[in-house]
Amino acid sequence: MAEALVVGALVSGFANVVLDRLISPEFVNLVVGKKLDRKLVDRLRTALLAAEALVADAEQKQFGNDRVRKWLDGLRDALYTADDLLDRVFIKAEIRSKVRTHLPSFLNLSDRKMVTKIEEVVKTIEDLQKLKDTLGLREIPTGSSSWRPPSTSLVKGNVYGRDADQQALIKMLNDNNHHNLSVSSIVGMGGVGKTTLAQWLYNNKDLMDGFDLKAWICVSENFDVVETTKNVIKGISSGVCSLESFDLLQQHLKEKLSEKKFFIVLDDVWSEDVDKWSSFVTPFQHGRKGSTILLTTRKENVGRIVQHYNSYTLKELSDDYCWSIFADNASFPESNGSSELEEIGRKIVKKCDGLPLAAETLGRLLRSKHDVKEWNKILLSDIWEFPMTDSKVVPALLISYYHLPAHLKRCFVYCSLYPKDHQYDKDELILLWMAEDLLRPPKRRETLEEVGCECFDDLASRLFFKQVEGNDEKYFVMHDLMHDLATFLAGEFYCRLSEELDEKEEMRILTRHLSYNHSISQNTSYKIESLRTLLYINHSPFSIRKEGTALPYGILSKKNT
């Protein structure tokens, strides 16, 4: 998306792909009115638009509601089928346009079968749309919902394992005393504790004694310059601001800040729009030396528009500190004290991979559970399988995901085909994204490789990938919780075959994307109905059977329908 919440890229974004195909000049000229009746095409377009309008609501309600999740899977499956059928119709029409034939289209049995299949898909989508009242789905405007509750400046509980970070941030803020305005940012992945540290700084009496004014603003999804300016005025004026004109707001804020040393926190910022930032910071240029705007963000380039900008990257916590957070929230050992529970709890904490938010959430989840079996259930369950009503681990990571443009969401979920701890080669992954047609269309004088590089760098800057250097090589890895998120979002449409799967188990009918590795038996084969991707990792002499035909290993096929 562009500065607004794009919800459900795997459904809504894919619906846009199909809709774009229907209105493309090439498709209209070759297919509409020749191989497909215009009324059928219009009916498909109308059905897609009606169903897509419900996706934003369904994407949120799917967590903890299996019926809504199945509805989304049904729509996603229908979109895949529609895209495949339209692709085949277009290819046949293109071939026929180059080869003279005297056989009327309506006498062509293959064409009539194709039309029948498309009619069936249209009816499926229409039937899904009719279920909206039964499932309680409604049309909601894109960007009107928030996955994250608004933050406050109040510190919640103890801060564990951040002594060095706290001292480094204090030094960074003190270094700002030589400039009239500095923008500092705390950068880190979702759940690592950025807001907690900002709250600690905001409430540090010794540090704040040197400031005349301070305010805490939760920006979240949409960085609206007018609204944010108004909120800053309210923050430094005890909640009072009756102005509406942007010019008057900026003039008023300039007067309030002039010759004052201020400390303004903008929590959870996403926008990289240089024009918006330049407009926003104008009144802040008139403060005294040492005036600071502190941002918390998941994106490295946010706020990088003033001369005096610095950032601090917040790393994950050690397992010992994560255990302290977990134990504090699980009321351990006060009400849950036993050596057996501690052993299980420490294994759970290890799964948190240094994310204090994960440790905090899981601790709270187990606070009222005193039975070993209950703790083991959490230990042996994947994070995405936790009840969404009780756990905020997945929604916390979903925030980062839902702020991605649709094409980046598809690129991210594609990574679920790789195993955890995989060392990603940037150039190789970009080529695969290109082959899968996951990237946005290139702009003028822009190559597809450049688009892919931009997409990868964008994901890396948002901390979906972390760069690692070792043995004179540079590669990228994905945090385990991010990989869990990609796998959760991929659902049954992506399948990764490994030694963990029963070799006798057949893939589900929804599977469209498949990867496998060296641990699969040479004698293993799977029946596949509509495969789009066949990706093998760590070469293996393994065959895939499609409609009785064995496909050679090591191929990548975008559409095998």
What does this structure look like?
The protein is 46% helix and 11% strand. Helix 1 packs antiparallel against helix 3, helix 11 packs parallel to helix 13 and helix 14 runs parallel beside helix 16. It contains 22 helices and 12 strands. The two termini are 31 Å apart. The chain is of the alpha/beta class. It has 4 domains: 127 residues; 151 residues, Rossmann fold, CATH 3.40.50; 79 residues; 146 residues, Winged helix-like DNA-binding domain superfamily/Winged helix DNA-binding domain (Arc Repressor Mutant, subunit A, Orthogonal Bundle), CATH 1.10.10. A 5-stranded parallel beta sheet has the order 2-3-4-1-5, with helices on both faces.
What are the defining features of this structure?
five-stranded parallel beta sheet; alpha/beta; globular; disordered C terminus; 4 domains; disordered N terminus; 12 strands; 561 residues; three-stranded parallel beta sheet; 11% strand; Rossmann fold
What would you say about this model in short?
Helices cover 46% and strands 11% of the residues.
Present the secondary structure layout.
Blueprint: H1 9-23, H2 25-30, H3 38-52, H4 55-61, H5 66-98, H6 109-130, H7 132-135, H8 163-174, E1 181-187, H9 194-202, H10 205-208, E2 213-218, H11 225-236, H12 246-257, E3 262-269, H13 274-281, E4 291-297, E5 309-313, H14 319-329, H15 339-351, H16 356-366, H17 372-379, H18 393-402, H19 406-414, H20 426-436, H21 448-461, E6 466-470, E7 473-477, H22 480-490, E8 494-497, E9 513-516, E10 533-536, E11 544-546, E12 549-551
Parallel strand pairs: 1-4, 1-5, 2-3, 3-4, 8-9, 9-10
Antiparallel strand pairs: 6-7, 11-12
